[in-house]
Amino acid sequence: MSQLSLTFDSSLLVRDDQGRYLPATADQILAVARQVIDQKIPRGAQFTSPTLVKDYLRTKLAGFEHEVFAALFLDTQHGLIEYAELFRGTIDSAAVYPREVVKAALRLNAAAVIFAHNHPSGNPEPSQADRQITQRLKDALALVEVRTLDHIVVGGESTESFAERGLL
After folding, report:
1. What is the CA radius of gyration of the chain?
2. What DSSP state is assigned to residue 125?
3. What distance, in Å, lies between the first and last C-alpha atoms of the chain?
4. DSSP codes joined into one string, 22-82
5. Hey, is 97 helix, strand or coil?
6. Could you tell me the CA-to-CA distances from 159 to 3, 43, 96, 126 in Å, in that order?
């Protein structure tokens, strides 16, 4: 189970197929939070600070019980072109394919990318495997002139930035 715990009261309700209102589950609340963050930061919105990026990614990735590897594809002004969950894995790993990432970046005409993935354990410390795949992705994208700006690891409510730690 995820490190994320929510406390809520009966005022958070969802309507079922029969029209009855029932208390919302944590998964339903997280799904709606992901939709709200998409409305709050629509396509074209600029990521103007590392804090904004981390908050966005924490909202998108916290609470999953399996690893999800995602990317923010950005334009030349660091405006959001698309958030994409590219790969899903198990409780402690996800297979990431550089070829597929490059294809997505080219399809979207991205100038830059920020990678992110979650650690269901709640510990955002980057692993050696995280460092290796980030370097492989950075090298592959550099060949097609797409800059890798950061890789954020989300562990529960905590995040770690490769750029801030000098790992890029």
Report:
1. 17
2. P
3. 31
4. EEPPHHHHHHHHHHHHHHHS-TT-B--SHHHHHHHHHHHHTT-SS-EEEEEEE-TT-BEEE
5. coil
6. 13, 23, 20, 10
Question: Does residue 56 lie within any of the structural domains?
Answer: yes
Give the whole-angstrom CA distance, residue 80 versus residue 16. 34
Which one has a higher pLDDT value, 157 or 116? 116
- Looking at the structure of the chain, the number of domains it has is 1
- The pLDDT assigned to 19 comes to 80
Q: Find the domain containing 139 and state its range.
A: 44-161
Q: Is 163 buried (19+), middle (13-18) or exposed (0-12) by CB count in 10 A? A: middle
Task: Give the C-alpha separation, 87 to 70, whole Å.
Answer: 7
What's the CATH number where 57 sits? 3.40.140.10
**3-state SS assignment for residue 18:** coil
Residue, of 24 and 168, whose pLDDT is higher: 168
